[in-house]
Write the structure tokens for this entry.
Amino acid sequence: MSMMNIFNVSGSAASAQSQRLNVVASNLANADTVAGPDGQAYKARQVTFQTELMGANKNDPTAAGVRVSNVSEDQTAGRRVHDPKHPSADADGYVTYSNVNAVEEMVNMISASRSYQNNIEVMNTAKSLLLKTLQMGQS
Amino acid sequence: MLNRLTDSLDFQAQALSLRSERQRLIASNIANADTPGYVAREMNFAQALKEATGSGQPAATLVSTAPGHIAGNAGGSGGTFSTLMYAAPSQTNLDRNTVDMDRERASFADNTVKYEATLRFIGNNVKTTLSSITGQ
């Protein structure tokens, strides 16, 4: 049943997209956090997708799922604001915020949710086709 | 005798299995819409159906010019791999991904309808056979 594999393929993609959405959520939640006691502010995280062949035959390119190969941290310096009265200010009176770019994260979120929807729709169509296949010759 | 009854179904059965394979291929393309470096693939359906029903030359066979040559299949042993092609990218992308979501969605809908059509052909074929058996 080669159609059964569609659920693996689209399911892996949906799971990867939901992980991406999760990372976006933690980035947005930490958009305004300041440097902790160690002097390190939160660093924005980013997922990287990779193709994963999931057919019974390992060379079959027609069943290509997705997996998250790694989650990397954005190493650019955080936003620094001069605020000497802030409890987390350093000796020069600067507060270091996280390096999350809220606009980029919102775009990322919309893209992830659209891709998620696409994969769910593919699964719904495959399901209705399989159900119709099961009723073949009965009507 | 019995195989005469089912022979007419064979063509539709091959078409149905190829349709389901194409459905999976398009699902893979949609799943990898955000994977960097992924190259979208598309199936040459007419060629694949010709090969599957044995009424055409396989897409990539080695020409043998001497009696000692072995017949080779460039696509590997698996049936429809040789009819897979890379879809021509319509818009370039920074991460070298060539999935065009509009085209994939259209192909997916097209393939869904044709899969259901094939299912209905088979269903009606069975119905015709049954009614000719029962004579009613």
Remarks:
- Residues 101-134 of chain B form the longest helix (34 residues).
- The two ends of chain B are 22 Å apart (CA to CA).
- DSSP finds three helices and two strands in chain B.
- The CA atoms of residues 88 and 98 of chain B lie 8 Å apart.
